[in-house]
Structures are given as structure tokens and as C-alpha cells.
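Input C-alpha cells:
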């Protein structure tokens, strides 16, 4: 994963060549450091990491998380059903030919959809007004209950919290409730095994180390959806934190790729056919 700069891989069955699940870097990391996660005073000893354990141990960690669950869709199916799955929070779908599942299966991601919208805005004409402002989209951020992390907490503790709450990112705030940065699942390729001990640093220290190549993605509520999507692609992120103003740096909400998937499905009611 680190060599190819990816965060997940399909997993084949023991007995067949059928793809049965997806293993996520986040879940692997949590499995490796679970003893440190349970003991706040414990460091991370790389030589004790269970790197020889089978992948299936990670898959059994939590059936509600991405590892051990997979959304499989036929290449001939309508896209709307996969968009609904993406709107529920899943990030990837395995696309197969049900007549021959071994024939060139591939992964479709939320990022693929967002990238297509940015390149072909006409494809969402009538479904999504890209020039509408975040503040004008009903209930998009108004009813959100944001979970934040203090910059004095360790990065490892916050990642553990994210796993428990099934979150893919949280904003980090300082003592004045000002936005300092964020911790996200996508950051984890930077937390490779050579630097895994950095996760025991405070969020403030950890963000300083990663900020050389990870820029927090922020906007204000008067930003348009087009601008939000552009930020997602330029900064390679799944979410944009919404600040009340650039001056005060108070976080009031977040727009995620899942939110945009939900907007696409808003006027397309489910059907049995």
C-alpha cells in the first residue's frame, strides 16, 4: 500500500479467486497498535508489531467498518444505487461482471465520481446546482453535531476515537476553539511503519510534522459547491471544513464527499425496479 500510495486493497477468498472484502490501511494500523491504544501511557514498539499475523485477523476487527464489508455491483447496474451506498458513508464499490466475476473487476470510489463531476459538470445538470452556496443548501451543515479533538490529545488516541465513532476525519482545535488542522484516514499513508511512533505525539505536534505535505482544506459557508469540489480535488481530500469566517477560525461544519453523493440522490427516490 505504501509503495503504491493507496489506502485499501481487495482481499480474495481462501478457496477461490473471488474477491470477498476490502482491507483498509486504517484498520490495519489499529490492529497493529491496539495494545498501545488501550494503554495511553504505552509507546509503540515497532519490533513487537504483529506483522506476520494473517490479514483475516484484521477483517474480523469490526464488521461495521470498511474492512470486512464490501459493496459489490454489476457493471451493467444503474449508478444511482451505488451513489446511495456512497451517500451512506461507504467510499468504494467493487464493480464486477456477474456473468464472469473474474473478468477485470475494478474499484469505483467516491473520488472517481467527484473527479467526473469536476471534469464534466454538465453530467449533473438538473441534479446538482454547482453554483449554490453551502449556506443555502438546506440542512447540509445546520444540523451537524461535530466531534472535535483537542490539540493536546495524542494522534493515536484521536484515531482510536475515530474508529469507535466510525469517523473518517475530525477537526483539531486549540484552547480558543480555533481550527488548527485535522486528522483524517487519508493521512495514514504518511504514517508508514518507519514513522509509526509519531502517532504517540500530540495532535499539535503531529500536524506540524505532516503539514509540510498535508494542507487542511477549509472554506466558509458562502463557498459554492463547485469551489468545495475543486478544493477536494486540488487538495486530495474527502472533506472540506467550514469555518464561520477566515478571521475567527471557528469550525461550524463540514462538507464531505458523502454529502455530495446524498445531494445527487436527493430527487431520485428509491424504487424496486
Amino acid at each position: 500500500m505504501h509503495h503504491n500510495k493507496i489506502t485499501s486493497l481487495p482481499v480474495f477468498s481462501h478457496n477461490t479467486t473471488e474477491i470477498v472484502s476490502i482491507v483498509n490501511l486504517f484498520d490495519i494500523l489499529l490492529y497493529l497498535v491496539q495494545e498501545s491504544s488501550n494503554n495511553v501511557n504505552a509507546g509503540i514498539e515497532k519490533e513487537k508489531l504483529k506483522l506476520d499475523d494473517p490479514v483475516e485477523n484484521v477483517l474480523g476487527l469490526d464488521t461495521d467498518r470498511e474492512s470486512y464489508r464490501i459493496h459489490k455491483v454489476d457493471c451493467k447496474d444503474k449508478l444511482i444505487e451505488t451513489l446511495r451506498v456512497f451517500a451512506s458513508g461507504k467510499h468504494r464499490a467493487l464493480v464486477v461482471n456477474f456473468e464472469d466475476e473474474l473478468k477485470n473487476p475494478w474499484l469505483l470510489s467516491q473520488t472517481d465520481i467527484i473527479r467526473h463531476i469536476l471534469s464534466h459538470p454538465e453530467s449533473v445538470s438538473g441534479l446538482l446546482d454547482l453554483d449554490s452556496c453551502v449556506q443555502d443548501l438546506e440542512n447540509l451543515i445546520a444540523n451537524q453535531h461535530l466531534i472535535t479533538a483537542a490539540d493536546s490529545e495524542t494522534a493515536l488516541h484521536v484515531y482510536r476515537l475515530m474508529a469507535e465513532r466510525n469517523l473518517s476525519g475530525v477537526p483539531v482545535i486549540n484552547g480558543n476553539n480555533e481550527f488548527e488542522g485535522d486528522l483524517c484516514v487519508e493521512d495514514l499513508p504518511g504514517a508508514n511503519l518507519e514513522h509509526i511512533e509519531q502517532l504517540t505525539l500530540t495532535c499539535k505536534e503531529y500536524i506540524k510534522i505532516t503539514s509540510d505535505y498535508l494542507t487542511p482544506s477549509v472554506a466558509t459557508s458562502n463557498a459554492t459547491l463547485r469551489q468545495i469540489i475543486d478544493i477536494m480535488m486540488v487538495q486530495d481530500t474527502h472533506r472540506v471544513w467550514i469555518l464561520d469566517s477566515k478571521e475567527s477560525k471557528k469550525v461550524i461544519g463540514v462538507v464531505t464527499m458523502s454529502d455530495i453523493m446524498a445531494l445527487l440522490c436527493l430527487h431520485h427516490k428509491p424504487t424496486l425496479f
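The chain has a mean pLDDT of 83. The longest strand covers residues 19-24.
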